[in-house]
Design brief:
- The protein is an alpha+beta fold.
- The chain has a single domain, classed as Thrombin, subunit H, CATH 2.40.10.220.
- The chain is 18% helix and 38% strand.
- The protein is built from two helices and seven strands; from the N terminus they run βαββββββα.
- A six-stranded antiparallel barrel has the order 2-3-4-7-6-5.
- It is globular.
């Protein structure tokens, strides 16, 4: 079964030109082995992370995330319980918004900060097509990072 990418104009004060939304699709459960098969990159991106049922308008905030096509890790001042579903919006290159959902796998308290947690989540309900789209963006982010840091 393949998902649909909705290409729409963004209403987020011109912060994006295209919005990709990962549709709610049945997703085979990825194993720990599968999650490590995806390249990971730690990068600062405009992101919005909120509980799936939160009806408040999402606001993009620059945040460091550890991102792969299998999921993401981030630091949060809010506790998120394992099994909780989060609505994720990533501001990717070329002013693209990528919207999807992620299931919290675990949270680890940060020893250096009170009421701060390292959240580990895996993407759910993501079609293969959307995952491939995200992989392409991650590869471009990696290329840009390498170019920035290793160009003469």
């Amino acid at each position: 079964m393949h998902g649909t990418i909705h290409r729409t104009e963004c209403r987020n004060r011109g912060a994006c030109q295209v919005c990709y939304t990962s549709t709610a699709m049945p997703d085979p459960q990825s194993s720990a082995r599968d999650r490590r098969n995806y390249f990971r990159i730690t990068i600062v991106l405009p992101v919005s992370i909120q509980r799936e049922m939160d009806s408040a308008e999402s606001v993009l905030t620059e945040k460091s995330v550890n991102l792969s096509a299998g999921g993401l890790g981030f630091v949060s001042e809010l506790a998120h319980q394992p099994g909780e579903i989060l609505a994720i919006t990533l501001g990717l290159q070329e002013q693209v918004l990528f919207k999807t959902q992620a299931e919290v796998l675990r949270q680890d308290p940060l020893p250096s900060r009170v009421h701060a947690y390292r959240i580990h989540a895996r993407f759910v309900r993501m079609s293969d097509h959307d995952r491939e789209l995200l992989i392409g963006h991650i590869m471009r982010l990696q290329r840009a990072h390498l170019h920035e840091h290793y160009s003469a």
